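To close the chapter, one final illustration. This time we ask the reader to focus less on the individual chains and more on the assembly as a whole: which components sit near each other, and how the overall shape emerges from the parts.
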Amino acid sequence: MQNATIIWTMIASASLTMGVTHLFFWWQERAKIERLFAAISALTTTCYSFIELGMMKTADPAVFGALFRWAHVPVWVFFCSTIGYIYFHLQTGRKWLAVMALGLRTLSLIINFLVTPNINYSVITSMKQVPFLGDVVFLPVGVTRPVVLLANLALVFLILFIADASIMAWRKGDKRQALMSGTITLWLALGTTQTIAILWLKAELPQAASPYIIATLLVGAFDLSMISRQAVTLRNTLESTHENSRRDLAHLGRVATFSEISVNLAHEMNQPLGTILTNTQAAQRILAQNTPDLNEVREILKDIETEGLRAGEVIKRMRALLKRGDAKLEQVNVHELITGLMQMLRNLLRERSVVCTHELAAVAPTVEADAVQLQQVLINLILNAIEAMDKKPPEQRHLKITTRGGPQALQVSVTDSGLGLPENVEEMFQPYYTTKQHGLGMGLAICRAIVTGHQGQLWAEPNHDEGSTFHFALSAAEKSS
Amino acid sequence: MTTAPHVYLVDDDPGMLRALGRLLRAEGFDVSLYESARRFLEEHEPDASGCLVLDVAMPEIDGLELQRILANGPSAMPVIFISGHGDIPMAVRAIQGGALNFLTKPVRADELISAIRLALELVSRRSADVAYLSVLKARLDTLSPRELEVMQHVITGKLNKQTATDLGVAEHTIKIHRMRLMRKLEIQSVADLVRAAERLGVAASH
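The assembled structure is written out below.
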């Protein structure tokens, strides 16, 4: 069995893949220098894991010694790139720890090349076969060189540097990065422990650091991919800017709608004001009498109060219609909404000689929606219906509003007796579709956007006899809340 | 049987209707309130007299429509319109339909009250006229055929002599007939006689 060969080759190819990927991303966004360091770490690991495999598979002490000596080169590079990665990724870390780690490592690298066969061993007498991961590998038999402690110390400083930087990052609030880097220290610590165990405790294990190193690489790669996720989040934010423009569009639609019904609203305002004025004039006359009927005056004041509130309601509705704001989901009683709306449009309907009937579900359905937007959809549908009936003789203008509510879904239908639908019904819902002379052509497009935004559906169909019906369906609100 | 000046108010806004009712009652008018044209048509006395204050915009039958219905009926009351958003074509239609006034909401009390006073004055003048006419008719019926003939000649401006020649009688006889008919009709001057003849539909002879 060649398990070790297979695993080490896999590690090598995995790190190569990671390295190339990191390099690619770094090339795309060169300001992200930590990616470059991650790439170097990964590519170095590829190198290192092949050397390690060679060390495991050679029966020649001389070859082993030479390979081990050369293994220090990628390890040194790995040190540099890891420190660079941590430093630039976490944007923190104590420099002296990094300098200590790198300095000791550099020193041990120099010593490594000054002595024979390497810094780890002063002498390697022979190789012995041991089973490892279901494979057979060779271990050196020899004497550990004490100065290798320098290299081990460098590892400890590296771990300290990363751990320290992670803690500082955590304190800074970069919790995810801190956790990830903290995990790197764990893997490095495990690797270091193993190295020390082999060198000093004569553990019957090959020099097998690659799995730990690849683990740190994986952690790093995962962390960096989270940054890409942040990029995705940024894209989502951009998309929500689209959402914003949709909101603006909805607002624009409301303004257009408002200007259509503003005359009507002005009249609606005039009504309570007129009533208040007339009541006041009546009260003045009553009070001027010799025996004023104070009960009557009291009644008058009560009426004035009611009318004042009514005027306030009109203002509130107008403001709601013109308000530009985020969609606010709330429990909306659709029947109340319809009733309020009909009050608002009462005069308009009357002016256009439209008779409006309701067929409302027995139980008032509640939906979770933005009341203002929902109202906008209804106003638009009603205005369209009125428009569609303009060419009909007055006695044939019938508008019907139907609600049908189940426990799951609510359907509101606006039926007119107008001229019907165009051949291609869907085309009405496209932007800039209009039959009006001064229309924006956005009404139905906006309506559909709003209803879709509420996870609902808006569609139109011709009636059996004449005219058309626009339906929209929304899911009813949870009753549990 | 003279009743207090009566005002019929029709407005579909209950608050406005009440307010107008209070105002006019405070001014001493007798007021009846109706929330719709239909209610008014169903409930008011057919021979009622007074004036109508109508809201223009109302569901089902609007003010202008009610005016038309009433114009075709027996009792033609003067109409004052109150409109929330009156435009000129609407006002023109109302006035052409015989409306006395067209006021816009919010309506000024003085304006409305003087319009109603004017309308009621017209009503009473008209009813006095009608009463006088019926009296005159009754008096006309008391004239003899010959007296009526003489009257028809007099109102053309003919002299007694010409009339006598036309009728083939003596001038003196004409004088007596003329004196009698004037007394019966209780009219002093020829001018008044001409006016009465006109209103009674007595044709002049040629």
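The interface with chain A takes residues 13, 15-16, 18-20, 22-23, 25-27, 57-59, 62, 84-85, 105-107, 109 of chain B (CB under 8 Å). Residues 6-132 of chain B form a domain with the Rossmann fold fold (CATH 3.40.50.2300). With these observations in hand, you are ready for the problems at the end of the chapter.
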